[in-house]
Every structure is written in C-alpha cells, then in structure tokens.
Design goal:
9 helices; globular; single chain
C-alpha cells in the first residue's frame, strides 16, 4: 500500500508526539536527501539524523513556530561571526560550534513547518535572508579577527584585514543573489522556475570550465559551514604558531575565492539557458 501524500494526511495531532518513522515519511520525503543541489553535504552526512530527533521533540511544542526557529537561526549565524572576534582559539571554536547550531536550526525550521503544514512564502524568504546575513557575518567576523582588535600583536588594529573580510562577505552575498535573481527575472517575465538542466552553459568551453570548478569545489569555502571549519583550522594553526598568520592567510584565500566566484558564477548564469 502506497504512503498517503501530504494532501491526504490526516489532521496533525499536536498533542501526540509522532514516531521517528511517521516523522521521517513526511519531513524527509523520498529523494530529498539525495538531491545534491538542494541538500548540504553536512545535512546528508549527519545533521538530518540529529534534526529529525529535535524536530520530533518540537512537534508538540506549539509555542515554537517555524518562523521563530528561522529567526533563531539568523541570530545564531550572526553570533558566530561575533564570536570570531574573541581572541585565540576560543573564538574560532565558538564560531565553528555556533555554525553547527545554525545548520541544525536551518534543518529543523523547515522540518517543523512541513510536519505542521505551516510552510509559507514568509518562511522561505526569511530562510534566504538568514543565509545571507549569517555568511556575511561570519566572513566579516573573520576580517575583524584578523585585524587584531585587541592589539595582541601591535598597538593598532590592522584594518586592511577587516576590509578583506568585508570584501569576502560581499562576494558571498553576491553569489547567492546572482542565483536568486534568476528566479526574480524569470517571474517578472512571466516564466516558470528554471530547470536544473538549464544551468549548463551553452558554450562548450565555459561548460568544461564549470565542470572543472565543480570538481574542485573551491567555491564552497565561502559557505558558512565550510568557512567556519576553515577558520577553525587556521585558528588551531595560529595557536601552535603563536600569531595570526594563518587567520590572515584564510582571509586572503576566502576573499580571493569570493571575488573570483562572483565573476565566474555571473558568467555561468548569463551564458546558460537560465535567462531564456
């Protein structure tokens, strides 16, 4: 017997905690975790297993709304960026831990919404804004960390590193906005959402370059999870070395990737069929 669709589900009983199997059938529909373009690798690897159990607990917590969880996700992501200002390895560890909490909340808010049938355009919008703000906060925080605000290496803060961190943050925002604006442009022209097949560039040379970049996956380093782990690794190396060399190197690397990816991603979109 086939499983009932979402439309055929009986009314949600918020007084009864569902079983893991009941919950999984609704919030992790078949094929969702296999869609690499829609699911982060950390979600597939471990976070969805954790979030499933947190969502089960929250399924009967009627005072907690999906949008409330999304706001909490935003706050956690911003706090991760602020945590990086804390000197030494402590700041790097705090930043990485808070980004893991941010990722957990990013999973849970949508799962709670799907279980309670409370998905909304507002929720989708807030989720996207939360990603923009959190990634920008993390990279800006990295720049401020490298600037040595607490003067551990000199009498004055080195603001050029803060500038590079802000540049990386701007690049991360532009990369996401380039993708999102495809749907905006299509909607304003009366077109439907773009298909995945349309993302392949029409130019053979550009398509090959895109495949090569996809294999290297260097562009992922400006994402919140990857960047936080990269920053943590730099923080550990700095703790061994006793200065900010590796943190500052991380700022240069992430800023360069963000700028390069902003240009390459724009070209990839313009030269594909997504805007046709």
């Amino acid at each position: 017997m086939s499983k009932p669709s979402t439309a055929e589900r009986p009314p949600v009983d918020l007084t009864r905690r569902p079983s893991i199997e009941e919950l999984r059938a609704v919030i992790h529909p078949e094929g969702m975790l296999q869609r690499r373009s829609a699911e982060h690798w950390a979600g597939r690897l471990y976070m969805r297993r954790i979030s499933l159990r947190i969502t089960r607990v929250l399924s009967t917590a009627t005072a907690i709304t999906p949008n409330g969880l999304t706001y909490l996700m935003m706050l956690t992501g911003i706090l991760a960026g602020l945590a990086l200002i804390v000197p030494g390895l402590t700041g790097a560890v705090l930043g990485a831990v808070l980004i893991q909490v941010y990722l957990l909340l990013d999973c849970v808010d949508g799962e709670v919404a799907r279980w309670r049938r409370q998905t909304s355009l507002t929720g989708v919008y807030l989720d996207r804004v939360g990603h923009y703000m959190s990634e920008a906060a993390l990279l800006t925080g990295l720049g401020l960390r490298a600037a040595d605000l607490f003067h551990r290496e000199g009498a004055h803060a080195a603001w050029q590193w803060a500038f590079l961190g802000t540049l990386a943050a701007l690049g991360a925002i532009l990369i996401k906005s380039e993708t999102d604006l495809v749907d905006v442009a299509r909607a304003r022209s009366g077109l439907t959402a773009v298909e995945d097949s349309a993302s392949v560039p029409r130019s053979t040379a550009v398509a090959k370059a895109r495949r090569a970049a996809s294999l290297l996956k260097f562009h992922r380093l400006v994402g919140a999870v990857e960047a936080s782990l990269f920053i943590l690794a730099a923080g550990i190396a700095d703790a061994v070395r006793g200065d900010l060399f590796f943190t500052r190197l991380a700022v240069v690397v992430l800023a360069a990737i963000a700028v390069l990816q902003t240009v390459l991603h724009l070209l990839s979109i313009v030269l594909s069929s997504r805007l046709r």
